[in-house]
From TrEMBL, chain A:
Residues 135-316 form the ABC transmembrane type-1 domain. Belongs to the binding-protein-dependent transport system permease family. It is a multi-pass membrane protein. It comes from Methylobacterium crusticola. It holds the Pfam family BPD_transp_1. This is ABC transmembrane type-1 domain-containing protein.
Automatic annotation (TrEMBL), chain B:
Belongs to the ABC transporter superfamily. Residues 18-248 form the ABC transporter domain. It comes from Methylobacterium crusticola. It comes from the Bacteria. CDD domains: ABC_NrtD_SsuB_transporters (cd03293). GO terms for molecular function: ATP binding. This is Nitrate import ATP-binding protein NrtD. PANTHER family: ALIPHATIC SULFONATES IMPORT ATP-BINDING PROTEIN SSUB (PTHR42788:SF17), TAURINE IMPORT ATP-BINDING PROTEIN-RELATED (PTHR42788). SUPFAM superfamilies: P-loop containing nucleoside triphosphate hydrolases. SMART domains: AAA.
Length: 332, 264
C-alpha cells in the first residue's frame, strides 16, 4: 500500500521535474521570438528609435530561455527557475507580441495614447537623467515624510496606550482629526508652509501618523496583563514595563499600522506631486502628459510601481527580522 | 531582599518567614463588592512548603497575588520576615498556571528577565546559564517559546523565577495545565529544587494528591469568602511514595474537608 502510493508520487514528481522544463522553456522562447519577429517584420507606423534594440533584446531573451530549457536537466537551479517561471514568461511574451502589433505595426490602439514597448525603452535610454532625478525626489519625500509620521505616530500610540492622562487629551483630537483624509489639508498646507516641499512632508507624515498611532495604541492596550504581573514580580520599574514589555508585545500591531500607513503615504505623495511639488515621479508624469508624451507617463508608472512594491518589500523584510519570533507570517 | 551574594546553584538560600495577619479582601464589581478572603491568619515558617487547597474560585489565587504584592489587601497586613509587603519584590516570585513567557524573547532571554529588570544582567550572566541547566533546558537556550512543549515552557518559567534566588516561591497551580505524566515528573523536580535551594514555598493547587506529595503542611480553605478550614502538617519524609498508607489516609481526610469524601 505504502509502496504503491510512494511510487505514484515519485512518478508524478519525476514527470513534473523533467517534461515541463523543456516544454515551458521552449514555449517561452517561442513567445519572445515572436515578439522580436513582430518588431522586425513590419515597418513602424511612427518614428521610434529603439525598435531594433527591442527586437534584439527580445531575441536574446528567447535564446536564453531556450538554452535554460536545454541545460535544465544538468543544471537543476536553472531548470527549476525556467520550470517555475515558464508559464509567466510565455504569457508575457505573447502579450508583448500583441502589444507590438497592435500599437507600432497596425495601429489598432490609438496613438499617442498607447505607445509601443520600444517607445518606453526610448524613455529609459534617452530621458533617464530626468526620470532618475524624479525618482530620487519622490523617494526623499516619501522616506522623510513616512519616517516623521511613523515615529510621531508610534510615540503618540505608546503614550495614549500607556498613560490615561495622555489618552484623555489626545484621544478626542485623534477621533476628530484622524479620519480626515490627509489630502483634505491640501489647500491649507500649501499656504501655511513656507515651501511646497515642507507642505508635502506634513501631508505625508499626517497620512502615515494616523494608522500608526491607532494600531500602536491598540497593540499596547491589548498586551496580556499577566506579562506586567510577571515583570513586576521580577523587579521591573515602569520604564522597563513600557520599553521591554508593552512595546515588544505591541510590535505585530505596529507593523500592521506601518503597512497601512505606507499605502496612505503613496497616495498622498502622488497627490502632493501632481498639485504642488515641482519634482518627483508624479510631477514628471503630469509634465509628460502635458506634452502628450504618453510613453513617458507609462515609463514613469512602471518605475513608480517598482518603487511602491520595493518599499513594501523593505517593510516586510524589516518585519520578518523584528518579528522572527512569531509563527506563520504572511510572505510578501 | 535576598542577600546580594552571588553563589553557585547549589547554594542554599534562606527561606523567608511569611505572616498573613487577619487579611480580608474584596473585589469591586459595578457598585457591589464581592468578598473573597475573610480574615485569613496564616504564618509560614522559613523553609516550609505550604500547600493551599480549596474549592475552585474560593480566593486562593487572590491570596497569592496579595502575597506577591501585586495588589494591596482591603484589610489586614502581610509581612515577609517581619517587614510589611507593600509591592512586588524579586524576593517573592510567582510561577503562574500559564508559563507566561514573553514570546518575543528566546528561552535564555526569558530567564534573564529578572536580572535585566533589576539592572544586574552583566553580573548574573553565569547564574542565568545555571538556572537553565537546573531545569535541564541548556540546549533550548536559543529557542523561542512557541517551539516548546507545555512542560518545557513551565520549566523555563521555573528557571526564570529561580534565577532571582527568591526566598519565597509562590506557585499558582504551576502544574495545572500539564499532562499527567509531565506533572508527576515535575512534582518530583519541584521537591528536589525546594530541598536544594531552601526557599519557602507557597503552592495553590486543586490536586489533593499533589499537595500531599509536595508539601510539609496543608491548609484547606472554605468556599468564598475563604476562611482557613483546616491546617495540618504532612509528617512524611522525602522522597515520598504515592502509595504510602499515611498519604492515602491524609488524602481521604483532605477530600472529606473539601466535601468530596462520598466517592472515596
Amino acid at each position: 500500500m505504502t509502496t504503491f502510493v510512494a511510487t505514484q508520487i515519485d512518478t508524478a514528481e519525476q514527470a513534473r521535474r523533467e517534461a515541463p522544463i523543456a516544454l515551458w522553456g521552449v514555449t517561452a522562447a517561442l513567445a519572445w521570438a515572436a515578439a522580436a519577429a513582430a518588431a522586425e517584420a513590419w515597418p513602424d507606423l511612427g518614428d521610434w528609435l529603439e525598435t531594433r534594440r527591442f527586437a534584439v533584446g527580445a531575441a536574446a531573451l528567447a535564446t536564453a530561455f531556450l538554452a535554460l530549457a536545454a541545460v535544465g536537466r544538468r543544471w537543476p537551479r536553472g531548470g527549476a527557475w525556467i520550470r517555475d517561471r515558464g508559464p509567466w514568461l510565455t504569457a508575457s511574451g505573447v502579450v508583448l507580441t500583441l502589444w507590438q502589433l497592435a500599437s507600432a505595426k497596425f495601429g489598432w490602439l490609438p496613438l499617442p495614447f498607447f505607445p509601443p514597448p520600444q517607445a518606453l525603452i526610448e524613455v529609459y535610454t534617452e530621458d533617464y537623467v530626468a526620470l532618475g532625478a524624479s525618482v530620487l525626489a519622490s523617494m526623499k519625500l516619501l522616506v522623510v515624510g513616512f519616517a516623521i509620521g511613523a515615529v510621531l505616530g508610534f510615540v503618540t500610540g505608546v503614550a495614549i496606550g500607556w498613560s490615561r492622562r495622555a489618552g484623555y487629551w489626545v484621544h478626542p483630537v485623534l477621533r476628530f482629526v484622524g479620519p480626515l483624509p490627509a489630502t483634505a489639508w491640501l489647500p491649507i498646507a500649501f499656504f501655511a508652509f513656507p515651501t511646497s516641499w515642507s507642505a508635502s512632508i506634513f501631508l505625508i507624515a499626517l497620512a502615515t501618523g494616523f494608522p500608526v498611532t491607532v494600531l500602536t495604541w491598540s497593540g499596547i492596550a491589548s498586551v496580556n496583563a499577566r506579562y506586567y504581573d510577571v515583570a513586576r514580580t521580577l523587579g521591573a520599574r515602569p520604564w522597563f514595563l513600557v520599553l521591554r514589555v508593552a512595546v515588544p508585545a505591541a510590535m505585530p500591531h505596529v507593523f500592521v499600522g506601518l503597512f497601512m500607513a505606507l499605502g496612505a503615504a503613496f497616495s498622498v505623495l502622488m497627490v502632493a506631486e501632481l498639485v504642488g511639488v515641482k519634482a518627483g515621479i508624479g510631477f514628471y508624469m503630469q509634465w509628460a502628459q502635458g506634452w502628450a508624451s504618453y510613453a513617458n507617463v507609462y515609463a514613469a508608472l512602471v518605475v513608480l510601481a517598482l518603487l511602491c512594491s520595493g518599499s513594501i518589500t523593505v517593510l516586510f523584510r524589516l518585519r520578518d527580522r523584528v518579528l522572527s519570533w512569531q509563527k506563520g507570517l504572511v510572505q510578501w | 531582599m535576598v542577600a546580594l551574594a552571588i553563589g553557585d546553584a547549589a547554594q542554599v538560600t534562606a527561606g523567608a518567614a511569611l505572616d498573613i495577619e487577619t487579611v480580608s479582601h474584596a473585589f469591586d464589581l459595578d457598585e457591589t463588592t464581592l468578598p473573597v478572603l475573610n480574615r485569613i491568619d496564616l504564618s509560614v515558617r522559613p523553609g516550609e512548603f505550604v500547600a493551599l487547597l480549596g474549592p475552585s474560585g474560593c480566593g486562593k489565587s487572590t491570596l497569592l497575588r496579595l502575597v506577591a504584592g501585586l495588589e494591596p489587601p482591603t484589610r489586614g497586613t502581610l509581612r515577609e520576615d517581619g517587614r510589611p509587603v507593600t509591592g512586588p519584590d524579586p524576593s517573592r516570585i510567582v510561577v503562574f498556571q500559564d508559563p507566561t513567557l514573553f514570546p518575543w524573547r528566546t528561552v535564555r532571554d526569558n530567564v534573564a528577565l529578572g536580572p535585566q529588570a533589576q539592572g544586574r544582567l552583566r553580573s548574573q550572566a553565569g547564574r542565568i546559564d545555571e538556572a537553565l541547566a537546573l531545569v535541564g533546558l541548556t540546549q533550548f537556550a536559543k529557542a523561542y517559546p512557541h517551539q516548546l512543549s507545555g512542560g518545557m515552557a513551565q520549566r523555563v518559567a521555573l528557571a526564570r523565577a529561580l534565577v532571582n534566588d527568591p526566598s519565597l516561591l509562590i506557585l499558582d497551580e504551576p502544574l495545572g495545565k500539564l499532562d499527567s505524566l509531565t506533572r508527576l515528573t515535575m512534582q518530583g523536580e519541584l521537591v528536589a529544587l525546594w530541598q536544594r535551594k531552601g526557599f519557602t514555598a507557597l503552592l495553590v493547587t486543586h490536586d489533593v494528591e499533589e499537595a500531599l506529595f509536595l508539601a510539609t503542611r496543608v491548609v484547606v480553605f472554605s468556599d468564598r469568602p475563604a476562611t482557613v478550614k483546616a491546617d495540618f502538617p504532612v509528617d512524611l519524609p522525602y522522597p515520598r511514595h504515592r502509595g504510602d498508607p499515611r498519604l492515602v489516609e491524609l488524602r481521604r481526610e483532605s477530600l472529606a474537608l473539601l466535601g468530596l469524601d462520598v466517592s472515596w
